[in-house]
């Protein structure tokens, strides 16, 4: 037998990973684990509470002693919750669709057309991001009142039908659509609206998906404005309605948590539908053109 | 199919004039190549013909009809872009069919036309693929297919081969030329590559700084360049230019040599530039012009380019590939007097 001395390269390859590298890996995983626990705990506690009897609500145990689905039956049989759910679905869906259309139309126009005052319009839209909602609710309320929109879907939805954030996001994404595509479509006989819809929109699907998720979640969880603009219980959205569960003496946390647990289902569905576009967008961005 | 005419076409961006009133007539079915360095105005001209840029002044006529105020879709043109501009979210078939969207053609005829175009471009098997499943050459063929499907009066090509590798570029060059022979449409092709211009064009339009320098067949612009810019831009390596003085048909080079040149278009005396292409300049020729020392050799196979240091500066010549002179060797370079070009030193205009 002949012994062959390993080359320095082979030695380097055979060398076990340095201990510091392993330690780094452990710390990384540990931090991720802690982060995961912090994220999941409120959700776990929400579900846990929704399965508890009222007397057990203030116990911090995660696993209920006597799990019950009575809260779910109560909430689902409660006519009010049904309406709040429908209201939230209608409002969040219409607002999301409107944002996808209007934000992308304005973003596309600001990105692909040259016209006097374009920069000023863009800055004006962006500057509205700096005004807190709390400051805006008073003018919104006065507008709603003068237009007769109080306690209506229109009143709840109108401030959010188009957002500066969405416009900015879409404008930035349209920057990545080559002008050649648009010019080619112009030569092929499409009008500007057809170009936007047929050529530009399919190319920014990841941005549309992200925007859809943001807007839907934002409207689904919106509390302050729906609380102010609605008066009748039938017009409440889920967050507004849930906050009123209980009576003057006590807050029915188990019912609030049950309603909250049910109300997360549509948001999960929206996320699951649109997340694949976001992931595909990220993957596509990494590919060589 | 249609002819195309540009009448004193000009373009300005604010106070900056980028196109200075150019005029050109393109015959029906002609393949015309606009060539020139970056910023010469060739792409701007093409985009103005397409209707993607507004004209500052002048007239564009397609098929005898003024199109200045018409939308791109009303001009009966199709354009192939440098970056293909084929839509990534559509299949090859949908991309090709896109050009027919606004057509009132019956669906059956549309389908027939798509198949016909796919057949011409050898893409029948690729119709269901998405652009990201195609090679660069195939993508370019899709872009050409989308332009072809409408059978436009004029095809406009904006540097369509510049994103392809050298081998594919040669292949696509050939395919576009064959396609033109087959369909016979008027083509305006923009490129900065003089080889593309020379190999494909019926006529070449050479541009610089927003002016047309010369319009002519590839042979004309190569053998009879209108000025020193054309002389140096067309042909690789560039034409050698040697400074001298002319008297009648005798040129005295500043370096001392005297030689006789062909009859001048206009008799002149004074400063001139004597032009001679490396292809026409050989060592140990029967008609020596000047001597120098070989400083570098570039073997090309059958021939070798030699860089010769002469009293008139560095000159490039062509030597036999089998027995090129050695570096450091002194050579006498000569050329047939018929292949000499004379340009006015001040204006750069050709005198021969």
Word description of this protein:
Chain A is mainly alpha-helical and 289 residues long. Chain A has 2 domains: 19-68, no CATH class; 79-285, MetI-like (MetI-like fold, Orthogonal Bundle), CATH 1.10.3720. Helix content of chain A is 71%, strand content 0%. The longest helix of chain A is centred in the N-terminal third of the chain and has 34 residues, at 79-112. Chain A is globular and about 70 Å long. Chain B is α+β, with helices and mostly antiparallel strands and 352 residues long. Chain B has 2 domains: 4-229, Rossmann fold, CATH 3.40.50.300; 239-344, OB fold (Dihydrolipoamide Acetyltransferase, E2P) (Beta Barrel). Chain B is built from 8 helices and 20 strands. In chain B, the strands form 4 sheets. Chain B has a 6-stranded mixed beta sheet, sandwiched between helices. The longest helix of chain B is centred in the middle third of the chain and has 18 residues, at 166-183. Chain B is elongated and about 75 Å long. The A-B interface holds A 178, 180-181, 183-190, 199, 202-203, 287 and B 50-52, 71-73, 77-79, 81-85, 87-89, 98-99, 101-103, 132, 146, 150.
- Between the first and last Cα atoms of chain A, what is the distance in angstroms? 54 Å
Question: Rounded to an integer, what's the Rg of chain A over CA atoms?
Answer: 26 Å
Number of strands of chain B: 20
Major sheet size, sense and barrel closure of chain B = 6 strands, mixed
Shape of chain A: globular
Derived structural class of chain B: alpha+beta
CATH superfamily name of the largest domain in chain B? P-loop containing nucleotide triphosphate hydrolases
- End-to-end Cα distance of chain B, whole Å, is 37 Å
CATH class descriptor of the largest domain in chain B: Alpha Beta
CATH level-two architecture of the largest domain in chain A = Orthogonal Bundle
CATH architecture of the largest domain in chain B: 3-Layer(aba) Sandwich
The CATH superfamily of the largest domain in chain A bears the name MetI-like
Poorly predicted ranges of chain A: 1-6, 284-289
Tally of helical segments of chain B: 8
Percent helix of chain A, as a range, is over 70%
> Biggest sheet of chain B: strands side by side, in what order?
6-7-8-3-9-10
* Contiguous helical run count of chain A: 14
Integer tally of domains of chain A: 2
**How are helices and strands ordered from N to C of chain B?**
EEEHEEEHHHEHEHEEHHEEEEEEEEEE
């Amino acid at each position: 037998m002949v012994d062959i001395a390993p080359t320095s390269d082979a030695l380097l390859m055979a060398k076990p990973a340095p201990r510091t590298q392993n330690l780094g890996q452990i710390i990384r995983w540990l931090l991720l684990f802690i982060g995961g626990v912090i994220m999941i705990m409120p959700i776990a506690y929400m579900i846990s509470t929704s399965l508890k009897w009222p007397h057990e609500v203030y116990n911090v145990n995660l696993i209920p002693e006597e799990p019950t689905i009575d809260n779910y039956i109560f909430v689902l049989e409660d006519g009010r919750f049904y309406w709040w759910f429908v209201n939230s679905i209608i409002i969040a869906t219409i607002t999301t669709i409107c944002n996808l259309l209007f934000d992308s139309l304005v973003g596309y126009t600001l990105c692909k057309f040259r016209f006097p005052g374009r920069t000023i319009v863009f800055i004006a839209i962006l500057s509205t991001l700096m005004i807190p909602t709390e400051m805006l609710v008073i003018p919104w309320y006065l507008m709603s009142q003068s237009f007769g929109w109080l306690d209506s879907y229109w009143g709840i939805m109108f401030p959010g039908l188009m957002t500066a954030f969405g416009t900015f996001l879409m404008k930035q994404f349209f920057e990545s659509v080559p002008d050649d595509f648009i010019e080619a479509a112009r030569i092929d006989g499409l009008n500007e609206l057809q170009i936007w819809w047929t050529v530009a929109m399919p190319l920014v699907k990841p941005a549309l998906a992200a925007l859809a998720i943001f807007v839907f979640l934002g409207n689904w969880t919106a509390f302050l404005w729906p609380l102010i603009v609605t008066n009748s219980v039938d017009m409440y959205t889920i967050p507004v309605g849930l906050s009123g569960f209980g009576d003057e003496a006590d807050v029915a946390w188990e019912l609030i948590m049950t309603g909250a647990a049910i109300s997360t289902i549509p948001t999960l569905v929206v996320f699951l539908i649109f997340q694949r576009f976001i992931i595909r967008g990220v993957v596509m961005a990494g590919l060589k053109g | 199919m249609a002819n195309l005419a540009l009448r004193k076409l000009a373009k300005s961006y604010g106070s900056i004039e980028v196109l200075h009133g150019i005029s050109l007539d393109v015959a029906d079915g002609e393949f015309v190549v606009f060539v020139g360095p970056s910023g010469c105005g060739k792409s701007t001209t093409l985009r103005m013909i397409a209707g993607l840029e507004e004209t500052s002044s002048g007239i564009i006529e397609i098929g005898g009809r003024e199109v200045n105020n018409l939308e791109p879709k009303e001009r009966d043109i199709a354009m192939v872009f440098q970056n293909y501009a084929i839509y990534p979210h559509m299949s090859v078939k949908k991309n090709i069919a896109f050009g027919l969207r606004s057509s009132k053609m019956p669906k059956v005829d549309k389908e027939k036309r798509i198949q016909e175009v796919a057949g011409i471009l050898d893409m029948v098997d690729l119709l269901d693929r998405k652009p990201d499943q195609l090679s660069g050459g195939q993508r370019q063929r899709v872009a050409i297919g989308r332009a072809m499907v409408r059978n436009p009066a004029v095809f406009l090509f904006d540097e369509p081969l510049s994103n392809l590798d050298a081998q594919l570029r040669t292949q696509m060059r050939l395919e576009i030329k064959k396609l033109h022979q087959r369909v016979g449409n008027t083509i305006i092709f923009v490129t900065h590559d003089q080889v593309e211009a020379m190999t494909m064009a019926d006529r070449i339009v050479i541009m610089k700084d927003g002016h047309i320098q010369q319009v002519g067949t590839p042979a004309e612009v190569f053998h009879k360049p209108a000025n020193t810019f054309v002389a140096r831009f067309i042909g690789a390596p560039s034409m050698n230019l040697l400074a001298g003085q002319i008297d009648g048909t005798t040129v005295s080079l500043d370096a001392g040599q005297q030689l006789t040149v062909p009859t001048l278009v206009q008799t002149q005396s004074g400063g001139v530039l004597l032009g001679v292409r490396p292809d026409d300049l050989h060592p140990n020729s029967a008609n020596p012009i000047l001597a120098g020392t070989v400083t570098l050799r570039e073997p090309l196979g059958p021939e070798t380019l030699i860089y010769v240091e002469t009293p008139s500066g560095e000159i490039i010549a062509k030597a036999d590939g089998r027995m090129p002179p050695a570096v450091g060797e002194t050579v006498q370079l000569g050329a047939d007097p018929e292949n000499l070009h004379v340009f006015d030193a001040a204006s750069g205009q050709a005198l021969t």
